[in-house]
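Recap from last week: sequence in, structure out.
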Amino acid sequence: MSGNKRKLQLTPTQIIAVVFAAIILLGTILLALPVASRSGQSHGVIPALFTATSATCVTGLILGDTWTMWSGFGQAVILCLIEIGGLGFMSVASLVIFALRKKIGLRQRMIIAQALSVSEMESVVKIQKWVLLGSLTIQAAGMAVLFIRFLPEYGLAQAAKWSVFHAVSAFCNAGFDIVGSFAPNANMIYFNEDPVVLITLMALIVIGGLGFFVWQEVATERSFKKFSVYTKLVLLITVVLLAVGALAIALLEWNNPETLGSMNTPTKILNALFQSVTVRTAGFTSVDQAALTEGSKAVSIILMFIGGSSGSTAGGIKTVTFLVLVLFMVARARRRSTVTVFRRTIAQDRIMDAATIAGLVAGLAVSGAVFITATCPVSFTDALFEAVSALATVGLTAGVTPVLNLPAQLMIILFMYFGRVGILTISLGFLMGDRAEDRFRYAYTNLLIG
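Predicted C-alpha cells:
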C-alpha cells in the first residue's frame, strides 16, 4: 500500500499543472452560470472554458467583448482568475498562510520554487514574501494613477472599476479590458491618444514581465555591477527588444492610414512603443492588429514568440532563452565549443533546454497555424499570429479569434494552457520522471550538417 501511495504522489511540477487545470475548471463552472452573463442567459461551456483558460493563463484572447458578454459577476471572476494565474496559485496560497502565520514546509517550498522559477530553497519563502508585497504595491500604484486619470471624466464608480481591472490585467500581462461600454472590442484603441493611460499600462506590463527574481535583485543590489549574470541579461535584452521592436513597427506603420498613418508624430511614437511593449505578452492593443502590414505582423510574431522573462507574469520562450540561442549560434559560427557571456560560461544543458523550448514552441505554432488555415477561412500569416499569440500567452489577434470554429477553439485553449504552465515543465514533470543517466551509449556517427 505504501508503495502505491508513493507512486501516486505528484511532483511539484505536476501539482502546478494539475492545480492550474482545476482553477480553469472552477472558472469555467462560474462563467457558465447565467449570473455571469450580461444577458442573464448562460453562454455555454465552450465560451466559458475559453474565457476561463485565457484569464487563468493570462492570455487575453476572447470570443467576444468582455464588457458586452460578461456581467459584473463574470468580470469579477475573470479578474480573480487573472490575478491567480498571473502571480501563480502558490502566491495566493502563501498569502493566506502568511496571514494565518503558519509555517511553510519543504514540499510547499519546492512548489513555490518551481512556480517562481528559482532554485534557492533556503530563501524561497523570503522571495515569495517579496513577490507578494512587490506585486500588490506595484498594482496599487498603477491603480492610483489610472484612477486619478479616469476620475474627472468618468466618475468615481467607473474610475475605480476601470483602474482596478486594467492595472491588474496589465501587470499580469493578461490584456483583458472592460471599456466595451464605449467602444466594443476597441481595447486601448479608445485611449491611443492618451499618454497617461498608455504609459501607465506600459510600465505595469514591463515590470510584470521582468520576473520576480529580477525585481528582488534590483531592489536589494541597486547596482548593475552587482547584479547576477541572469539579471543583467534580462535587463539588456528587454531594453533592446523594446527599442528595436518600436523602431521596426514605427518604420513599417508610419504611413499606414489604418494604424499610425493618421496620428501626429508624438502619438505615432507612443503607439509604436506601446505595440512593442504589449506584443511581448500583454495583449492590449492601441491599433487594429488586423490592419497591420505583413512586415509588422512578422515583427509582432517574433516578439510574441520571445515573450517576457522567466518567473514573471509573461509568456513566450522567454528573453534569456532567446539570447542563449543567439549567443550559441554566434559561438558556433566562430567555431567555438563554449558559449560565454559576462566572463561566465553557459552550461551545455542550459543551451539544450533553450533549444528544446524554442523548437517545441515553433513546431507547435506552425502546426497550429496549418490547422487553423485548414479549418477556418483565414490566411496563414493571421493563423500563425493567432497560434503564437496563444502559445506565448499574449492575447493579440488579427481578427481570427471570433471566426474560429469549435476544433480550432479547442486547440487554442490547449495552446494557452501549455503556454502558461510551460511546455518543458509539463514534459519533464509527466514524461521524464526518471532522470537517471543512460546506462549505455551507441557508437558515434558523423553527419553532414548545413
